[in-house]
Fold this sequence. Notes:
Layout: E1 7-12, E2 17-22, E3 28-33, E4 44-45, E5 51-55, E6 60-64, E7 72-77, E8 82-87, E9 93-98, E10 110-115, E11 121-125, E12 132-136, E13 142-147, E14 152-157, H1 158-162, E15 175-178, E16 186-189, E17 194-198, E18 202-209, E19 212-220, E20 225-227, E21 231-233, E22 238-245, E23 257-264, E24 270-274, E25 283-285, E26 289-294, E27 300-306, E28 311-316, E29 338-340, E30 346-351, E31 356-361, E32 366-372, E33 382-386
Antiparallel strand pairs: 1-2, 1-33, 2-3, 4-5, 5-6, 6-7, 8-9, 9-10, 10-11, 12-13, 13-14, 14-15, 16-17, 17-18, 18-19, 20-22, 21-22, 22-23, 23-24, 25-26, 26-27, 27-28, 29-30, 30-31, 31-32
Amino acid sequence: xxxxxxxxxxxxxxxxxxxxxxxxxxxxxxxxxxxxxxxxxxxxxxxxxxxxxxxxxxxxxxxxxxxxxxxxxxxxxxxxxxxxxxxxxxxxxxxxxxxxxxxxxxxxxxxxxxxxxxxxxxxxxxxxxxxxxxxxxxxxxxxxxxxxxxxxxxxxxxxxxxxxxxxxxxxxxxxxxxxxxxxxxxxxxxxxxxxxxxxxxxxxxxxxxxxxxxxxxxxxxxxxxxxxxxxxxxxxxxxxxxxxxxxxxxxxxxxxxxxxxxxxxxxxxxxxxxxxxxxxxxxxxxxxxxxxxxxxxxxxxxxxxxxxxxxxxxxxxxxxxxxxxxxxxxxxxxxxxxxxxxxxxxxxxxxxxxxxxxxxxxxxxxxxxxxxxxxxxxxxxxxxxxxxxxxxxxxxxxx
Length: 399
């Protein structure tokens, strides 16, 4: 297999398997069973084409090398259920927060930090909730937790957390920056020392100054909607999300409006593109396209937004068990995962409940092949597509 050939990681977090396959032919090069990966924490890109993720059942951080003969490079015990996963820009220092899991209310306040170079790890208690996390690099790396209700960006020195004694002691933030209580979505731009958090008001920005954060002007959404997901574009310094508008009632999800929102961090230009009604959530960044999936009772589609702002819509076959009118888009239904690499033109989309992955050429909008797996890919499963040198690690937050 050529060093730069793309590989696709396919996870069914319910049935507990992970496959690695070459793209586009689908040759399986790696396989793990009895591994129930945290879909919420997602996959984290590390340097050299490696990938980090969390096994929620075993309570382990997995470091994978999908280009090596041995898939699992390292395992480290961590607290679960994993909510969010992030690393510093070097890919050495990692942080894992805990969240709801299968519970209806926040209950865990455990945070795990890991130094992959030394194998050291420590667990501390912070604050129960659903915290997001970023890890800022530099001479004294910082862990920044994004808390909700009440909202705040809590700053901790990574070295202090790693040196914590056994027994999961409580820790106090070194610095605190107020934030609205409805934060959801985190990103950082490693070259600038800036962190970003999505709230109902817009994107809150903060810049590292010493061992603290200095707030900057909020980036408004510019629409009667908000983003629930935030991602750094490593192809250019830009932020992406999907703005969801309409009635908050989840039973009215087919009426939700969706816009692609992109803010160029260098020029300050913001672009919004209508995607259509229904359920649109996570996105993927291919070489020259940004990919979205839209689920709707009248038909699903893959939406490819080109670098020249052109929009191509690719119909997708219906899913048995898809969200329906009169029900919510979250509970007991199938969904879709989407993945791409910033160094390839392929886009992968799952067909939840059918064990299928569509591989689409973003340049043509044509489906090249359809991969099939032995499990259904419950809830859409989870995907990551990488080439060894694609630079995806430039976004040091799990997706």
